[in-house]
């Protein structure tokens, strides 16, 4: 079991291991939502993930048709992503976990949208996908 929370601690969650995958996303939506050159997501099946019973519920924003992003309404931390493109999955921002996960990032996805000012020199696959427009 791995636990995590937003910056202020109002929204906290638990995820049952194993993770389905961990990857760095470079899509325009993730970059803009997080204010970062990419976001590292950990994917879980819905039944592996839960907002803790004593936690505040995240607020949700529909960032594109069929896709929504969860965030803390107190501190604004971007936290979760769900999409009809990946049904039955909860994507959780990797940096929010206080506990270690069982997998390291395995790829860069939507790499065609990566920022030019960050030189990525790891050996992970750089996958090009059909990213939705910004």
UniProtKB/TrEMBL annotation:
Entry's Gene Ontology molecular function annotations: carbon-sulfur lyase activity; metal ion binding
One matching Pfam family: GFA
Gene3D superfamilies in alphabetical order: glutathione-dependent formaldehyde- activating enzyme (gfa) (3.90.1590.10)
Domain spans labelled CENP-V/GFA: 2-119
UniProt-listed PROSITE patterns: CENP_V_GFA
Taxonomy, superkingdom: Bacteria
Keywords noted in UniProt: Lyase, Metal-binding, Zinc
Family: Belongs to the Gfa family.
Name the UniProt record assigns to this protein: GFA family protein
């Amino acid at each position: 079991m791995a636990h995590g929370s937003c910056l202020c601690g109002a929204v906290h969650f638990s995820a049952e291991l194993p993770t389905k995958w961990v990857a760095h996303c470079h899509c325009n939506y993730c970059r803009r939502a997080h204010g970062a050159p990419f976001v590292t997501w950990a994917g879980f099946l819905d039944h592996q993930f839960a907002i803790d019973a004593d936690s505040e519920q995240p607020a949700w924003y529909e960032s594109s048709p069929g896709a929504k992003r969860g965030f803390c309404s107190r501190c604004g931390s971007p936290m979760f992503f769900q999409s009809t493109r990946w049904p039955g999955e909860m994507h959780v921002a990797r940096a929010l976990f206080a506990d270690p996960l069982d997998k390291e990032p395995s790829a860069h996805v939507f790499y065609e949208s990566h920022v030019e000012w960050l030189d990525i020199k790891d050996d992970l696959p750089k996958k090009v996908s059909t990213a939705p427009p910004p």
